[in-house]
Amino acid sequence: MTEGLERRLAAILAADVAGYTALMGADEAGTLRRLTDLRREFLEPLIDAHHGRVVKLMGDGFLVEFASVVDAVACALAWQKGVADRDTGLRFRIGINLGDVIVEDGDIHGDGVNIAARLEGLAAPGGICLSGDAYRQVRGKVEAAFEDLGDQSLKNVAEPVRVYRVAGAGPAEAAPASKPLALPDKPSIAVLPFANMSSESEQDYFSDGVTEDIITELSRFHELFVIARNSSFSYKGKAVKAQDIAADLGVRYILEGSVRAAGNRIRVTAQLVDGDTGHHIWSERYDRDMPDLFALQDEIAHTVAGTVAGRLRLTSEDRAERKPIGSLEAYDYALRAQAIIADTKEENRRVRQAYEKAIELDPACTKAYIGLARSYIIDSFSHWSEPGERPLDRARDCAAKAVSLDNTDSRAQLILGSVYAQREEYQEAKVHVERALELNPNDADAYAIMGFYREGVGEPEAAIECYLTAMRLNPYYPAWYLWKLGDAYFGARRYQEALAPLKEALDRSPKLKRPRLTLAAAYAQLGRIAEAEREIELLLADHPDASIEQERRSKFASDEDRDHWIDALQKAGLPA
After folding, report:
1. Are strands 128-131 and 61-66 parallel, antiparallel or unpaired?
2. 512 near 480, Cβ under 8 Å?
3. Residue 316 has pLDDT above 50, yes or no
4. Any idea what DSSP says for residue 42?
């Protein structure tokens, strides 16, 4: 035994929020608020009542130690029931193990902890999994039935572990580990958020902005497969091995690094890691003046691309010359605005004010015009605009200005294409989204918006391929990818395949109108009328004004598509 370290036998409970990344993507501030309130008002008192000790909190995760396995399982059962009763929109997965742990400065380590964490990963949302050692201690001592899932091979655990699940906690079927994503047929990479090494933690927005720009520059290379920013950033602040991240995202390489900004100087370090072996392939440190930031980002992108893809043909398609920073202060305002989560009308106005300040300081700041256009799009679909305001007109004007300032900026082209798609001006949308994909062939959102266009012109099969490509580039995809995929399956008359993505979208955001309508329509076309009527009941509880007449006014690619949609909703029981 290592001198100075304490060992003891303990019951370890590991828990995390199912679908946490997607929940944060849809509503970061609201999700954090619900989780914080639930932890303070219910979970911490519950753990204390069952004689548990919270070892540490890890974002959405809990590691809790108990002296008794019976207490741990009783706590887990009350945990899952209490969370379900509170209707917070949060669901937890829980794993429990009995094992030897190493205690150091209040923290616990060792195989006992690792097995509990892996069991949590096997549990279904709302479910509880136990190791065989834990099960033997609680059998007949708690009011729960258990199902034997057999021996399971757990990641980084040498021998298979016998696993049991609590019957009735979560879906009836066991939740196996998700199928690994296959590697693409070309070099693939994920860029993790570069660590902020500046003295002030609030400078995170700057290192995040640098990272995002490096992702964008790497994405220009047609020879590479680059994971979307949203998926890469889901690992921010988490201690996860590069090999595990690479396996989760289905890529071969991981780029990580750090940023330190001080005055007019910046230091960036970058390391390229082989996701298969964990070995470092290349690393470098750069010290530059701040005005050289864009050139530095380009240099890092080209070095990494050349390293993982071999000799590259450098054409105008691979690299578009970016305009130099006109004003460092304007760029800083734009990055600050980009970091704000605009989940309320007031927050969106704050975002807009910051972008407007950036434009005041630098009228040629493309990034600010892109962000300003996005804020008006948010106003439009959130219904936050004042009477008489035309937010999509304002969004179009800002996006067009961004393109006029730099027509080689893929994000400018995409935001303009997005505005046109929102306005159902599909041919104009197509022009700009295609240009965005020429400039950045790894842009998940561009593929998704192209799917929106394909649906709009009556090509649902092509739309399905676009959405599936977007979801591969962004494995932690937002809910709207799912419900648009469900829409496309419905349009292609593939009703059974429409159900799963629509249900998942509604699991994340139960009050969304369109996926609820489409799910009801798909059930109706499958002849499952009772389920269709149930979906209409749920829809009308949140959207009492929904009607057939309202749906008739929607835009369709053809009269046939309109008749198909209306016929399904009439079968489902939507009021006239």
Report:
1. unpaired
2. no
3. no
4. I
Over residues 411-428, the mean pLDDT reads: 91
What confidence score (pLDDT) does residue 172 get? 31
Domain 188-309 CATH class label: alpha beta
What are the sequence ranges of the domains in the chain?
6-166, 188-309, 479-576
**Between 382 and 559, residue with greater pLDDT:** 559
Q: Which two tokens stand for residue 44?
A: 């911490």
Which tens digits make up the pLDDT trace of 80-95? 999 988 878 888 999 9
Q: How far apart are CA 420 and CA 403, in angstroms?
A: 14
State the pLDDT at residue 174: 34
Task: Write out the two tokens for 172.
Answer: 């009836």
Buried b (16+ CB within 10 A) or exposed e, 359-390: bebbeebbbbbbbbbbbbbbbbeeebeeeeee
Structure confidence at residue 201 as a pLDDT band (50, 70, 90): low
Asked if 250 and 183 touch (Cβ cutoff 8 Å), the reply is yes
User: What's the token pair of residue 486?
Assistant: 């469900």
- Residue 297, classed as helix, strand or coil, is helix
Which CATH fold topology does 6-166 show? Answer: Alpha-Beta Plaits (3.30.70)
CA distance to 194, 216, 257, 286, 327, per residue, from 289 (Å): 18, 21, 18, 10, 14
3-state secondary structure labels for all residues of 488-526: HHHHCCCHHHHHHHHHHHHHHCCCCHHHHHHHHHHHHHC
The dihedral formed by the CA atoms of 11, 63, 94 and 92, expressed in degrees to the nearest 10:
160
Res 52: pLDDT:
93
> For residue 52, which phi and psi values (nearest 5 degrees)?
-95, 165
User: For a pLDDT cut of 70, what percent of the chain falls above it?
Assistant: 91
332 close to 198: Cβ distance less than 8 angstroms: no
Rg (CA), the chain: 25
The helix or strand, by DSSP H or E, that contains position 301, with its residue range, turns out to be: helix 293-309
- Average pLDDT on 246-272 reads 87
What pLDDT digit, counting tens, does each position of 219-237 carry?
A: 888 888 999 988 888 888 7
User: pLDDT tens digit string along 112-124?
Assistant: 888 998 898 888 8
Cα first-last separation, the chain? 75
Per the CB < 8 A criterion, the answer to whether 359 and 365 are in contact is: yes
Q: Tokens 């742990």: give the residue.
A: 101
pLDDT at residue 373 is higher than 70: yes
CB atoms within 10 A of CB 19: 21
Q: How far apart are CA 197 and CA 145, in angstroms?
A: 50
Q: Cα separation of 57 and 312, whole Å? A: 45
Tell me if domain 6-166 and domain 188-309 are identical in fold. no
For residues 402 and 359, the answer to whether their CB atoms sit within 8 Å is no
For residue 142, the 8-state DSSP code is S
Tokens of 89: 């929109």
* φ and ψ at residue 468, rounded to 5 degrees: -65, -40
- Asked if 495 and 487 touch (Cβ cutoff 8 Å), the reply is no
Regarding the domain delimited by 479-576, which CATH topology (the fold level of the hierarchy) does it fall under? 1.25.40
H or E element at residue 103:
strand 92-104
Give per-residue burial for 126-135: e unless 16+ CB within 10 Å, then b.
bbbbbbebbb
Cβ atoms 257, 237 nearer than 8 A = no
